């Protein structure tokens, strides 16, 4: 990877979602602008705030898809990442907050 580029793999559960009542919503359904989670597979030398193995939140409309060794990946710039998920479990029983 060069410069500030990230190679990410989409989460497998991102293809189908369930509503609060249990209805399955296919990935092809248009629900407005929705961000997606992905796992970082590789990072360029200029990437500062994201590490390999992190889960990142990004806009799936601003992506470039690439196939490497028969696997589909997405190529992003670090500035296109909206959030990085914390590693491990939270330290207290307070729950998760955004």
Automatic annotation (TrEMBL):
InterPro entries: Chaperonin_GroES, Chaperonin_GroES_sf, GroES-like_sf. SMART domains: Cpn10 (SM00883). Keywords: Chaperone. Belongs to the GroES chaperonin family. This is Co-chaperone GroES.
